[in-house]
Write a structure and sequence with these properties.
Layout: H1 19-34, H2 41-48, H3 52-59, H4 62-69, H5 76-84, H6 91-104, H7 106-121, H8 123-141, H9 150-170, H10 181-196
Helix pairs in contact: 1-2, 1-4, 2-3, 5-6, 5-8, 6-10, 7-8, 9-10
Length: about 200
């Protein structure tokens, strides 16, 4: 039996049957209210009423909390690192292929599709989508770009890809909806590459 002076370890709180779920709910609220960059694991833990060590126990890093909170089936940080690894003059092609591979798979597409549909008419969902794109994906690509207006160029890259996803998978506009991935890479990648290496 635990003595009166002994502190309880970082396990589940008494009467809390779904501590993991409570942490995710708190994380969604924190990300929506403060944004990804301003949200801390400590703040998420405080909102959920748990020790920060418990957040790390369930999820590890803040990025992994975000991925779980958005119910994503992939780790976008790992994908972004894959895109960033390789010659800069081929970055856009890697970016487009990664993007289409995620959206082309029904399992990985589902949560992104839900987030994209929600973002169209819901400001909180739109905020979370923007945070996902700018703070998790594009942040890893940014150091590879030189020249002026880097952030604007990155957001223009994202706008092309999100627009492609909207027309291809939500609106299902033809012939975009039925075009092959190779066709889209051949058409979209050169445009995005001009944002990566303007004037190159």
């Amino acid at each position: 039996m635990r003595g009166p002076g002994r502190r309880r370890g970082p396990g589940r709180r008494p009467g809390a049957p779904d501590t993991r779920g409570e942490i995710l709910g708190a994380a969604r609220a924190e990300f929506a209210a403060k944004g990804f960059d301003a949200t801390s694991v400590r703040a998420i833990a405080a909102r959920a009423g748990v020790d920060p060590a418990l957040v790390h126990h369930y999820f590890g890093t803040k990025e992994k909390v975000f991925v779980a909170a958005m119910e994503l089936t992939i780790d976008p940080a790992e994908l972004a690192e894959t895109v960033a690894a390789g010659p800069v003059d081929e970055l856009a092609e890697r970016f487009v292929r990664m993007f289409l591979s995620v959206w082309g798979n029904p399992v990985t597409r589902a949560p992104f599709l839900a987030l994209l549909r929600s973002a169209i008419g819901h400001e909180t969902a739109a905020l979370l989508l923007r945070q996902f794109i700018t703070s998790i994906v594009l942040a890893r690509v940014r150091p590879l770009l030189d020249g002026p207006d880097v952030d604007l160029r990155l957001e223009l890259m994202a706008s092309h890809l999100v627009g492609t996803a909207l027309l291809r998978y939500v609106i299902k506009a033809e012939p975009l909806a039925s075009a092959s991935e190779d066709e889209l890479v051949a058409l979209v990648a050169p445009t995005l590459q001009r944002y990566v290496t303007p004037g190159g």
